[in-house]
Structures are given as C-alpha cells and as structure tokens.
Give the backbone structure.
Amino acid sequence: MTQKKFSIAFATVLLLFVGLNFVIWKSATEVLLTKKYDGGDLARMGYVIGSKQLRKVDNNLPVRHIGMKEYDGRKVDVLTIGDSFSMGGGEGTNSYYQDFIATINNCTVLNVYPYPTDDRVAGFSPISTLAVLLNSGYLDVLKPRYILIESVVRYCVPRFAKKLDLSRTDSPENIRQYYAKTTYGLDYLPKVGFINNGNFKFLYTSLLYHFSDSAFRGLVHRMQLDRGLFDAPEDHTLIFHDEDLTMIPYNKGVLVEKVNDTFNQLADVLAKRGIKLYFMPVVDKYDLYSDHIVDNPYPENPFFAELRKLPKKYTLIDTKAILQPMVESGVKDVFYPDDSHWTCNASKRVFETVRFP
C-alpha cells in the first residue's frame, strides 16, 4: 500500500470513528451521561435511552422547607432526616417531599443533611445524624414537634436492623460550622466529550439486553410491563436498581423485627422530649411495579407485609400502601421512568394522606 493510499484509508477510518461517536452521542449518550437534563441515574447506569425523561428542576410550592444552612432560630414543626429521597433525588418538579409537608400542613419543615459519621450506608446514616443533634444539645435548640426518618427500603435493614446506638456526638460549634459550609448537590457527573467509552457501552449494552434483563452487568434491570405506566418513549419499560432484588432475602423475619425494635426504642427516647417519631420507608421501585412485570421471574418483597403486623410506638408511613393504588389505577410516573426516585405525584399523595396535626 502506498503512503497516499494508507493516508486516505487512515483518514477514512478516523472520520468514521469520529462520525460514529458523534452520532451516538447526539442520539443517545449526551442526555444519559451529562447534566443536559436532570435526573436519570438508572437510565445512565443502564444505558437505557428509551426510558430517559427530559426535565429540569422546578420547585414552586407556596411553602418551602429550609435546610440546616438556612436555619435562623425559627420554630421547627417537622424535622426530616433521610437519604437521597430527602435531598430532592430525581429532581424535576417539586422534588422535595418536605415542601408538600410544609404546604399542606402550613408548617415549618427543617431538613437535616447527613452528618459525616463513620457508619453511613450508601452515604447516609439517619439515626447517627439524629444522635449527633441529640447529644450535642442541638436538638434542644431546634425543638421539633415531629421527627421524620426516611430511608429507601433496600437500605432499611443495613441501616436499622441492629442495636440502637445513640452514642455519636460532636460539639455544637463543629455542627454549626459543618452545616454552614455544606450543601448537598446532585451535579456529580464528570465532564465528558462526545468521544468516550460510554458510546461503546451503549452499543453493546443495548445488544445484551436482548439476552439478559440486566445486560449481564448486574447494575440495572430492564423489564417489560403489562401496561404503559411511564411518560417516556418506552412507556411499558421498567428499569430498576439491582439492589432492589439482592436485598429481598433480608427483608423478612428477625431482621425486619430488629428494624421495628430500633424505631420503637427511638420513639421512647424522643417521647421523653415531647417529640413524635415518624418512620417513612420508601417502597423500592421494583416492589411497587412488580405485579405488572410480564413473566416476572423474581420474588415479592416481603418488607411491608412483615413490618405492618408488628407493634409500633412510632407512626409508620406505609408508602407502598399509599402508592400501590395509584399504580393499579394506571397513574403514570409515580416513580420516574429513568430514575430510582419517586416523582411529585407520589410525594404529594403520601402527604395528602399523612398529616401532621
């Protein structure tokens, strides 16, 4: 091959490579791998462009919650501590369930970001964060009437099925300084150009979904529903986190009893201070939609069935019981199609049902 022919061949291959990457980027991966649009952690992880929902943050309820950074000494009615569901995960319209609490009940809601304790599970340890506020005297300053602890179900057993430990603490000054400088952001994606390995992953993952509902990767499952339950191009497609399945064997028996015991003990501690405890386990996406998966090979999640029958000193916010009728009646986007978080359709219904007197 002459040098001229080699140069032409090389230039042709290079142009094809660049062109193919650009086409895949513009048609699929740009909206999956960047913050061009909000939300979509599952679509990004699973490279499922058909479930991507294009949206932007729009928090517009008339009464809004405040964070620890904005706390100015005002009276606090409800204090919330949780995981990404408590931090506006999923984004889009009115992503903070605390704003529905504040608006519907016309009350002050303070959301506490996770304190950097050494026992966090998937980045959050709500009870240890509460312990720091309790032991430092900070809770006596806030004086909430209600405390709501939230956790997605797949992490409830790892976070709460253990002996109640309220030993963690810190000085009030350290707490003030930490929350004065700390904000919780969801813009965590690295910047990538249109030539990136995600383009190749999109191609082979799309192929592998024809042979495995998780594309043999074990990160995100992609399954068909018997009806259209999402406002997305693939409205019959359900994508959900693999841990929705891997945690199912632990969500029963003595471990759920331990979760319940933890909250009963915590309720006793808070009752001595005149505080009522609410526990809100957020139903896993798989669990909520599992009855409508076509030829579903996976088991039911027994968490709520087990927890409901146990004696409680706290108020359980049974998100599955509240949201399942919405799915059954065909309401679209109870959860986001491309994300592991619920939409404002869900959080509004929950707090229209659960009030803070």
In short: The chain has a mean pLDDT of 94. Strands lie at 66-67, 78-81, 109-112, 146-152, 220-224, 237-241, 276-282, 315-316. The first helix runs from residue 3 to 33.
